[in-house]
Fold this sequence. Notes:
Elements: H1 3-13, E1 20-24, E2 27-31, H2 33-39, H3 41-48, H4 68-80, H5 90-99, H6 103-115, H7 122-131, H8 135-147, H9 165-172, H10 182-199, H11 206-213, H12 227-236, H13 241-257, H14 260-293, H15 300-307, H16 321-330, H17 335-352, E3 372-377, H18 383-390, E4 397-402, H19 410-413, E5 418-421, H20 430-442, E6 446-450, H21 451-454, H22 466-469, E7 480-481, E8 488-491, E9 513-514, E10 523-528, E11 533-538, E12 547-550, H23 570-581, E13 585-586, E14 589-590
Helix pairs in contact: 2-3, 5-6, 7-8, 10-11, 12-17, 13-17, 14-15, 16-17, 18-23
Amino acid sequence: MNSLSKDLKNLLDNLDLVDMRFIINQTQIYAHKLVLAASSYFWKTQLFGNKTRNNEDIFTVVLSDIDPIIFKKIIEYLYTREILIDSKTVDLLMEYSSQFGIENLQHLCSEYYQNNLSSENCVKIHNLACKFKDENLKKISLKFLENHKLKENQVLKNSFLGMEKNDVTQLLLLNNLHGSEEIKLLAGIIEWSENYCSKLQMQTSPNSIQFVLEEPIKFIKFEYISAFHFLNLMHRKQYLTDFLVHKLIEYFNNSQLNDSIIKENVLQLEFMESKEKSVLERLILWGQHFCLDNNIDINQENLSKYISPFSSMLNFQAFTPTSLVQLLETKIFPFELILENLITNIQKLISSKTEYFIKSEKKPITSISEIKVLLIETNHFSRNDIISSIKSTGIQNVDSVDARNENVTFEQMKNYDCVFTFSYNSYKNPQEIGNALAIYVESGGGLVLAARDTLNTDDTCRIEGRIVSDGFLPMKYGKPIDDKPSFLGKILKNDHPILKNVKSFDGGECSYRIEGNATNGSSAVAFWNDGSVLVAEKTKQSNFGTVIVLNILPYSDKVCSNYWRSSSDGMTLIANSVVYVSRVEKNGQIMK
């Protein structure tokens, strides 16, 4: 029996809605005029005659805020139990079937969502499951979220609006929801809290919203939120400024309590800030004397007026978070300036979880054979091909790690002279690897990055974190190019060590690369023949390591015939890049 037949049988068995009956030998049989008339011309004539009904005789229901096309599909479904559900109609069908209590249709929509879950829609579908109290869909979508990396822009401002408080907390517990879009998570739960207060008919006051936010905000990872985005959010939600700053500090203090390495970093920073504190004290003392000498009241407003113009004399990044909070409370220096430095320092202290302020002490390298290289890859089948390229000019020590399954930390990197990384599949945690690479470069380590998928703007395989956001790389994310064979083109620096013995480079049939130019503070070394950058370098500060971007897919046609031609000088290009950033010394000078 199909679902329509079941519904009609239930209708027949439910005497509340019958509107006629037959009496046969003292037996009563109940029925519905409309069902009989729709099924039999005889009964239509008997029950309704042949007259045409006027619109005035029709029972009318006026609906607003309903899409008439979708509603007509629902009515047709009720009569036929047939309906076409697709990505354009499913959201409204789910909403209306829930609104009008059509459980069979709601179940069909739920099945559609389950069969079409992806990394691009899983947050939205989980939200709908929570909104419509679909426990099975909620369970399935949550499991999907646990096991898949999200596409960029999955976390939207309204991602939580249909959820109960426990649903929001449960979602925020998922590690792979956190990362480069953390600001959207924070904005999303703030938007949710405002709507949740209205839903509970609570007064939408700062106190009510802060009460609702108290538990969910504990799961926000503030180290992933830039100072710019944090300040921008506070401009839009000024009533939450004190609350958000308090939660930021609370988060940092909890992180410090639970991590001995962060504690150690803070101790290092306390040592560094002593010099800056003496400058600060002298500046405040000068401000007080200036007020006295000019018969001006010594108060916060006047001290701020005369001292804050000299803020540039202080390096606020050398202050601990505790000291910066104290400066915030004095209200002498510009609020945004201190808060920006507070956020930046907290980010560095938490995201590094290692000896951020201690430069690695390594013995100088005096020959190429001494260079130690760590290959961080996500495509195991091509590993040996890249290792062969790296070793082609005499390097002997190359270790590799599969970053699909392992988070690579600074502790692992710091004993190597060069890190070479590329992605073909997703990094297990692209944010944490990017943060660790930034610390490694700040500690003097050299980095070579193959850009094709690692910096592909459309790819879930790309690297993230501070190595990108803090401007270490000589190229930004770009769109992929693989439309035709391309070759080594214009060379800007013929005598550059990376190009030593590189006479040609043939990218192969597809010549995989990304669009893009060198970033500010970077130098292009060579281009493809179509004008896109092939090699670029950047050294952000003199005591930092050098970063090279090779705008290629780093494996040769020995792996696949589409890749760069091994008959050209690709192996030499890769090996030279590794040697260059490894800073081999000769007679106390870096070899160039």
